[in-house]
Amino acid sequence: MADERSAARALTQKMLDLGHRRVAFIGGTPQQHRATVERQAGFLEAIHEHPERDRIHHTLHDCQAFFDAGHETGLHVLSQTPRPTAVQCLTDDIAAGVIAAANRLKMTLPEDLSICGFDNFGLARKITPTLTTAALPAEEMGEPLRCRSSKRWKVEPGRP
């Protein structure tokens, strides 16, 4: 199973290593999915472990895991003062919505804002600029489900 927390921590550490001190996390609600809880925890751990943690301004924003929700939440977050200089998104779909919001606000990426996402299901390479994303081992994650489902149904040769 993927280590969501470590991946989020690594993405956040990279943002902080690049000098970002105003960072935001956009995506999900902790009640929705274990990945949300783990990714938010990794985001917060990286901040709290950073030597300059007292100089880091961070915010967490709930958001459905869809492009349109990412766009709407992105408009809200990017209109705040002070505006974040880096945003980590729960999914690549949300990140694409935030990129659209940044474009609408006439921001230049990555000069004005750095954005990263999660999943790397192909969308990250199709948008401009291309998205920094955490690749998850989709085949490994699906293996337990495939094994459970194959045990649930008996398939007899010659029968649909």
Low-confidence segments: 138-157
Q: What is the chain-wise order of helices and strands?
A: HEHEHEHEHEH
Number of domains: 1
Looking at the overall shape, the CATH architecture is 3-Layer(aba) Sandwich
- Strand-pairing-aware structural class: alpha/beta
CATH-defined topology: Rossmann fold
Our estimate of the beta-strand percent is 15-25%
Count the DSSP helices.
6
User: Could you tell me the mean pLDDT?
Assistant: 82
Give the radius of gyration: 18 Å
- Largest sheet geometry: 5 strands, parallel
Give the % helix.
40-55%
Strand order of the largest sheet: 2-1-3-4-5
Molecular shape:
globular
Number of strands: 5
Tell me the CATH superfamily.
Response regulator
The N- to C-terminal Cα distance equals: 32 Å
Using the coordinates above, name the CATH class. Alpha Beta
InterPro entries: LacI/GalR-like_sensor, Peripla_BP_I
GO molecular function: DNA-binding transcription factor activity; transcription cis-regulatory region binding
Keywords: DNA-binding, Transcription, Transcription regulation
Domain Transcriptional regulator LacI/GalR-like sensor: 13-143
Summarize the structure in words:
The chain has helices at about 5-15, 35-50, 65-80, 90-105, 125, 140-150; strands at about 20-25, 55-60, 85-90, 115-120, 130-135. By secondary structure, it is an alpha/beta fold. It has one domain (about 5-150): 3-Layer(aba) Sandwich (Rossmann fold), CATH 3.40.50.2300. Strands 2-1-3-4-5 form a five-stranded parallel sheet, sandwiched between helices. Strand 3, helix 4 (about 90-105) and strand 4 (about 115-120) form a beta-alpha-beta unit. The longest helix is centred in the first third of the chain and has 16 residues, at about 35-50.
